[in-house]
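S.,

Sequence below, as promised.
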Amino acid sequence: MSRVTNDIRRPGLRRGANAGVLFALAAALSFGTSGIFARGLIDAGWSPGAAVTVRMWVAALVLLVPTLLALRGRWASVRRNAGMIVLYGLLAVTAAQLCYFQAVAVMDVGIALLIEYTAPIAVILWLWLRRGEKPTRRSILGAVVAFVGLVLMLDVLTGAQVHLGGILFALGAMVGAATYFVLSGRADTGLPPIALAGLALMIGATGLTVASAVGLLPFAWTTADVDFRFVTVPWFVPAIAVGVLSTALAYSFGIVSTRMLGSRVASFLALSEVVAAMVFGALLLGQVPGPAQALGGALVLAGVIMVKLGEPAVADAEPPVTAPEPLAIPAAEATVPAGPERNVYI
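The prediction came back faster than expected:
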């Protein structure tokens, strides 16, 4: 199909884009709650490894039956995309969430998430060094603005103690986030969004369990109540919530929105997760950033936005997928438009 044909407005395109925006915002809001639930469990005596392992198992079990139903007649697609599914499970799910939980154990939720969401800058730098794809001036300026914001956000200039381990884990989460947006945007796999999420979560849960069983991952948990700023709840409330709300629904909505909007637009809208995480952190954990950190956070967001706007416009030339269904189980193989992969930056 030629590019001219692809540029013709098609019925349902705007409706699909609007629905994609709603799914993206719902995913960001859901993901934004994970840090507060995790920090609550960790403060109550859970290790980050235990918190993320329980999160994965709860989400994987919630999606198990829908995943199996969605894959009826599509197991050939699973075999064909086995490598991508494993990579998605290990990097986009397991590494991203484990590193993030390790980071929020020693850092404010919002700051850890802001570092994670510098992923677009890292991807552009990688493309420059690896493939010689020089970024635009706007992207370079955005990267500089984001770096200045990161310095302010970490409170380096005031002599505050910086937790190096937390920063490194947040950067590890950044790598996982970049992988998430790139692989979620692949609409040529024949895998329903809920099936990709379910398989990846099962891979992540199994891998973390094995790592804990052999002693590679510290695993400590407690049945003590979990204290938040205004309320104390039983331990199973945040444990279930982080699996169902922050993971099962979040990944399903996120994959759907990325396929409908493309990686570029979806990752742009996902920045609203940072705002949600900061609001939740302030309300439930009392983590209110200081003036310098707030200014730094604003600069990081502005820099990332500038980087995204500086990407080549050709990335958005192809129309988005218009009609995937996140939680409904399709009766037949979904039709995927022919053509090259869209909106993928690596």
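The first helix runs from residue 3 to 6.

Coffee later?
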